[in-house]
Amino acid sequence: MIKYNLQFFAKDGPGGQRTEPATAKKLKDARKKGQVAKSRDLTSSVSLLVFFIILKIYVGTMGTKFINEFKVIYKKMGEVNATSLELNSLSRFFKNYMSDAILDMLVILLPIMAAAVLVAFVGDLVQVKWKPTAEPMKPKADKFNPVNGIKRIFSVKTLVQLLKSIAIVAICMLVTYNKLKKEIGLLYNFYNISLEAAIIRMGDVLMDVGITISVIYLIVGIADFIFEYVKFKNDMKMSKQELKDEWKDTEGNPEVKNQQKRRMNEASRRRMMQAVPEADVVITNPTHFAVALKYEQNSGKAPVVVAKGEDYLAQKIKETARENQVEIVENKPLARMLYYNVDLGSEIPQELYQAVAEVLAFVKIMSEYYDEKRKETKK
Fold first, then answer.
1. In terms of domains, do 151 and 51 share one?
2. Do both 206 and 112 map to the same domain?
3. DSSP state of 291
4. Burial level of 105, CB count in 10 A (0-12/13-18/19+)?
5. Cα separation, 269 vs 7, whole angstroms
6. Is the model's pLDDT at 250 over the cut of 50?
7. pTM of the full predicted structure?
8. Which terminus of the chain is more exposed, N or C, with fewer CB under 10 A?
9. Domain limits at 83?
10. Would you say residue 194 has pLDDT above 80?
């Protein structure tokens, strides 16, 4: 009889199929690694559309400025003396005129280039928000694996990208052909108009073609972003086992958390019990509560609660107090009020000054009385 391990056919490892939406932690970790839902086509299409719109608005002014620059260059080229040393003559020409002309052309193109960069930045910002990370640029061993490289080349994603690129190129060629076909009469009449008018008219035609292609590309980009977003959500889904493992990692195993809490409480109790021998008095009720107070007369501060506890811990505080000859005073209302209203390490509130002062005065009187008794015993 042949035995089958059905887990071999399970999807994506432990916990079975990934049917649960990704948690905020997993999405945050993926974001740190640069894994986000993003469409490069959407960013490129928006940048291209803005580029052609600004160019269409600016083309008249820009064309005139370029023509003026070329006129200056052509005019100055007459100063190049063919009979003189051509190297010196050309060098002087490029130094005096061409460098300024190139700089002027860059200034003319600056608004368009700045707009393209800004739109690309804003497009990425809208899609993935602001989260700089260098994780995708880190070298990974699997990237250098030829087998993985072949898998990426012949993957479904690569095939979809190829078909999409072919479709975009075909649409662009079709739109360009139809637009130029409508303007074929204009091309035949170029010889009847001035060079400047021909350049401006041809620029308008090219701008219209560019805007039309950009709009089509934008539609493709939006569809691509929706596809990438849905795909990203599906890729980020988690199995029930993964949810349990993540919860244990983030929230902690309840048993481990209880052990940690117990150890912290024990450490806190040890520190508290170490402060009892330095206390001036322990006020009890007398069985359920015990509160140890310490008062430094020259500090200008009120008495401080250095230890407190109930039931078993209260008994331990009293035992430690007896072992270190710390006075124990029974005062049920005061012990209860101190226990419930004053935190460990805090000064007593003003409302309890009178009651605590009476207790401390009593302790001082008793301490002086015992000191005199001990002196008399020694004599």
1. yes
2. yes
3. E
4. middle
5. 50
6. yes
7. 0.47
8. N
9. 37-131+140-240
10. no
The helix/strand/coil state of 327 is strand
Task: Report the amino acid identity of residue 82.
Answer: A
Confirm whether 174 is domain-assigned.
yes
Q: 285 and 187 in one domain?
A: no
Contact of 120 with 77, CB cutoff 8 Å: no
85 shares its domain with 207: yes
22 DSSP 8-state letter: P
Model confidence pLDDT, tens digit, residues 329-356: 888 888 888 888 888 888 888 888 888 8
Higher pLDDT, 183 or 295: 295
Which secondary-structure segment (H or E) carries 284? strand 281-284
> What is d(CA 288, CA 300) in angstroms, rounded to the nearest whole number?
31
Residue 343 located in a structural domain: yes
In a domain, 255, yes or no: no
**Which residues are paired to 347 by β-bridges?**
304
What is the pLDDT of the chain when averaged over all its residues? 75
Residue 198: partners with Cβ closer than 8 Å, 6 or more residues away: 190
Residue type at 282 in one-letter notation: V
Domain with 284 in it: what CATH number? 3.40.1690.10
Predicted confidence (pLDDT) per residue in 96-109, tens digit: 666 666 777 777 77
The dihedral sign for the CA sequence 235, 237, 242, 247 = positive
